[in-house]
């Protein structure tokens, strides 16, 4: 057993499979390996150089396979492995999945076969047909795919300066259309080795070398980004105006590339100048920027208060003012006023007012009520409910037309509210007292008392007015209510008429020896719906 262990230790590790050919198209490279390996070992060989088994999603990849096989027989592993227990012949990939973890493809070229199950992988033949195969069985070789974000073009041909290329995955040759990053180009005639790498300043991939400066101008312009010249037989690069040579002596960059300016850099020939944004000024180090106190530099910037900010300033207003369109205006008390219609600012507060046809409510200054200063005014009617409203002290005129409804003034003086004299006003009334009396509230008068308790002769002292309840406010009456009142008055008149007739008949009943003849009753209308009855009786002897 010990001898077997020693023997295994002395055996060399199997040599790594080398690619037999490769081709690069833009940012994708494909390589062919002729090595009899099972699927898993072939996949691991591709991954060692950052690739994976080849995916064939279009006819472009199929053309690359045809170029790599060059009519050579055999079967090569593709990057397809069965992801389901059994194949699904109706599907484009038959249930297989790419080694990249997806099933996306615009192309498939399967060899006809029935349904199969188990560990199955896919190979491709010289006829470019796909065929299922057990993953543990070795194939004749495999195809690898390498993807890169960018590439270098092949060097332009120059007389007597052929180039030999080597890719990072080990392929050598001179017929590449593009080379991935990390590839090298050997030019034996110049003893020059170039490398495809990122250029300084983020300019993408370029051919270059570790040694700064240009190489002979006849090969790719000496590697110069600008122009190449060989004064005295020594190649050198130069850049256009506004740019300067980079550290490698070949690339061109703005003088501001890598400049320490905090805000802005402005090229100035082969050098640069730092500049700052508005509200800042250049610090003594000529590269950083520091804030400028705008309020101190320009005192009149703001109408009231100026507050300096980083890189600028801010205008503010004093207490009691607010900013309105860039100006400080006094704060209006009407913003929070509860006025129903209109509001105006007055010293120390606000005042509510009403639109035409309305007046301020006497007890609630923020409310507006209907108002009329004539004996007749148009009513305010609702288009939705078809109800009409009148100001206080007015009632709807039943004789109004359908087009216009009017409100008529109530004559409160006919209602006997005043003790002495009364003056009717639109929507209201005023009481007046006779001589020797004084008005103690809206309706009642009180005699003016003298010092000896007498009447109004001599000096007198006014009594303290005693408040009394005012007349009830007239509410708006519905037309139906007015009809009911009228009917009630009519019924009362009829009842009074019947009672009078009954009393007259009883009075005129003839005694035993006498007979009476009654005259016709006379009616006289006094005031508003007031009816009286008078009877005359004439005695007639039997």
TrEMBL record:
Compartmental location: Membrane
C-type lectin domain sequence ranges: 25-137
Keywords assigned: Disulfide bond, EGF-like domain, Glycoprotein, Lectin, Membrane, Phosphoprotein, Proteoglycan, Repeat, Signal, Transmembrane, Transmembrane helix
Topology versus the membrane: Single-pass type I membrane protein
Keyword Cell division: no
MF (Gene Ontology): calcium ion binding; carbohydrate binding; transmembrane signaling receptor activity
Primary localization: membrane
Cellular component GO terms, alphabetical: membrane
Pfam families, A to Z: EGF_CA, EGF_Tme5, Lectin_C, THBD
Domain EGF-like as annotated: residue spans: 291-329, 409-446
InterPro entries, alphabetized: C-type_lectin-like, C-type_lectin-like/link_sf, C-type_lectin_domain, CTDL_fold, EGF, EGF-like_Ca-bd_dom, EGF-type_Asp/Asn_hydroxyl_site, EGF_Ca-bd_CS
Transmembrane segments: 481-504
Signal sequence extent: 1-17
Function: Endothelial cell receptor that plays a critical role in regulating several physiological processes including hemostasis, coagulation, fibrinolysis, inflammation, and angiogenesis. Acts as a cofactor for thrombin activation of protein C/PROC on the surface of vascular endothelial cells leading to initiation of the activated protein C anticoagulant pathway. Also accelerates the activation of the plasma carboxypeptidase B2/CPB2, which catalyzes removal of C-terminal basic amino acids from its substrates including kinins or anaphylatoxins leading to fibrinolysis inhibition.
Assembly: Interacts with ITGAL, ITGAM and ITGB2. Interacts with thrombin/F2; this interaction switches the specificity of thrombin from a procoagulant to an anticoagulant and antifibrinolytic protease. Interacts with ANGP1 and ANGP2; these interactions significantly inhibit the generation of activated PC and TAFIa/CPB2 by the thrombin/thrombomodulin complex. Interacts with PF4; this interaction enhances generation of activated protein C. Interacts with HMGB1; this interaction inhibits HMGB1 inflammatory activity.
The name this protein goes by in its record: Thrombomodulin
């Amino acid at each position: 057993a010990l001898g077997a262990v020693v023997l295994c230790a002395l055996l060399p590790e199997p040599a790594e499979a080398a690619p037999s050919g490769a081709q690069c198209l833009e940012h994708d490279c494909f390589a062919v390996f002729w090595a009899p390996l099972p699927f898993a070992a072939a996949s691991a060989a591709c991954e060692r150089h950052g690739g994976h088994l080849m995916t064939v999603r279009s006819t472009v990849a199929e053309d690359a396979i045809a170029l790599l096989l060059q009519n050579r027989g055999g079967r090569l592993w593709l990057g397809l492995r069965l992801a389901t227990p059994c194949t699904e012949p109706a599907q484009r990939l038959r249930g297989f999945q790419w080694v990249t973890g997806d099933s996306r493809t615009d192309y498939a070229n399967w060899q006809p076969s029935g349904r199969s199950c188990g560990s199955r992988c896919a190979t491709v033949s010289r006829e470019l047909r796909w065929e299922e195969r057990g993953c543990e069985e070795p194939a004749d070789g495999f195809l690898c795919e390498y993807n890169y974000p960018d590439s270098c073009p092949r060097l332009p041909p120059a007389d007597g300066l052929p180039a030999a290329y080597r890719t990072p995955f080990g392929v050598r040759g001179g017929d590449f259309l593009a080379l991935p990053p990390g590839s090298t180009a050997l030019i034996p005639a110049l003893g020059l080795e170039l490398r495809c790498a990122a250029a300084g300043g983020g300019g993408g991939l370029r051919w270059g070398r570790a040694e700064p400066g240009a190489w002979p101008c006849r090969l790719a312009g000496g590697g110069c980004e600008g122009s190449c010249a060989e004064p005295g037989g020594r190649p050198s690069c130069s850049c256009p105006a506004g740019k300067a040579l980079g550290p490698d002596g070949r690339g061109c960059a703005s003088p501001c590339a890598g400049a320490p300016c905090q805000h802005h850099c402005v090229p100035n020939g082969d050098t640069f100048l730092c500049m700052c944004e508005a509200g800042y000024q250049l610090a003594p180090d000529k590269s950083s920027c520091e804030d400028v106190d705008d309020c101190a530099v320009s005192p009149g910037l703001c109408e009231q208060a100026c507050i300096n900010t980083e890189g600028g300033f801010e205008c503010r207003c004093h207490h009691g003012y607010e900013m309105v369109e860039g100006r400080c205006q006094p704060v209006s008390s009407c913003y929070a006023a509860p006025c129903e219609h209109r509001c105006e600012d007055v010293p120390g507060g606000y005042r509510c007012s009403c639109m035409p046809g309305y007046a301020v409510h006497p007890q609630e200054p923020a409310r507006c009520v209907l108002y009329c200063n004539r004996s007749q005014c148009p009513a305010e009617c609702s288009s939705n409910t078809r109800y009409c409203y009148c100001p206080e002290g007015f009632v709807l005129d039943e004789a109004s037309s359908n087009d216009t409804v009017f409100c008529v003034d109530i004559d409160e003086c006919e209602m006997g509210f005043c003790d002495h004299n009364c003056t009717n006003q639109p929507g209201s009334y005023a009481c007046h007292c006779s001589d020797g009396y004084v008005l103690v509230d809206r309706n009642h008068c009180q005699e003016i008392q003298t010092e000896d308790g007498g009447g109004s002769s001599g000096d007198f002292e006014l009594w303290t007015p005693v408040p009394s309840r005012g007349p009830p406010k007239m509410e708006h009456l519905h037309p139906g209510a007015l009809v009911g009142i009228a009917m009630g008055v009519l019924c009362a008149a009829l009842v009074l008429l019947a009672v009078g007739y009954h009393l007259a008949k009883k009075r005129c009943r003839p005694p035993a020896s006498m007979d009476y003849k009654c005259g016709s009753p006379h009616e006289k209308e006094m005031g508003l719906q007031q009816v009286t009855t008078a009877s005359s009786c004439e005695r007639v002897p039997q």
